[in-house]
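Comment thread on ticket #2218

A.B. wrote:
> Attaching the input chain for the structure job we discussed in standup.
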Amino acid sequence: MARPPVCKLMDFGKFKYESALKAREARRNQQQTVIKEMKLRPKIDPHDYETKKGHVVRFLKAGDKVKVTIMFRGREQSRPELGFRLLRRLEDEIQELGYVEAAPKQDGRNMIMVIAPHKASKPARGGTKLREGESDEFSPEPGAEPETGTATAEQQS
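C.D. wrote:
> Ran it. Output below, let me know if you need it in another format.
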């Protein structure tokens, strides 16, 4: 501790404002985890399965985690291997887009598996999309003269 004690006089309002700015910036930079859920049944039709798989693929490409739930009813509960086989098949078919974060697990009447996208496949959310025919570089209007670093006689006067 310093002798004599040193204190700093400061504007408390400014201090609160700056700390609020830092907190807002930290919230802006944090990553939101979104978990989408897809529910299936063990006796799913092939076309319905492909449709549900398409939704899972779309969610993974968007960078979201997917919770796949297989719902068992009645006698289906005595055959959990059907649901396990279905989840393994889904896992094999979407292997290039994501990985299994939580292995298939029986939870009462449901079997649950969580699939997460690979790290590199996460796109930036809220980014500006370019319309067709636009580029991200500045390009002058057609027919306009290119700018040079030197000023002409007209511009100097």
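A.B. wrote:
> Thanks. Noting for the ticket: Residues 35-121 form a domain with the Translation Initiation Factor IF3 fold (CATH 3.30.110.10).
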